[in-house]
Amino acid sequence: MEHGSALKFIMYSAHDSTLITLQAALDIYNGLLPPYAACQLFEFYQEYDGSYSVELHYRNESLSDPYPNPVPGCNGLNLCPLSTFTELARDVMPEEWEVECGFRTKWSSTGGGKSLS
Length: 117
Prior knowledge:
The protein is built from 3 helices and 6 strands. It is α+β, with helices and mostly antiparallel strands. It has one domain (16-116). Strands 1, 2, 3 and 4 form a 4-stranded antiparallel sheet that branches. A two-stranded antiparallel ribbon has the order 5-6. The longest helix has 10 residues, at 16-25. The model has no long low-confidence stretch (mean pLDDT 84).
């Protein structure tokens, strides 16, 4: 997100198998099949010193608030410095996303945006 952006919320939708893969990659998967409408939340904060932190929460039922997902490797802290989180996730992050994931971006012939092929 660009500094000074008015953007406050981004949401992606996924299947349960994608949610499991994401949680397993972050070493926070509890081994249970996510129920319908479960979600993994990432909250980003800018600290007073200008650095950023991330906080993870998992919602797997509608009757209670999401519960915290402390990131393994962040010393048990729920609010993990983004630099630490990025380093912990480095092994599962592609270095060349388009090449490693097999996607090519192309410009839409309708003059709008980009699409994946």
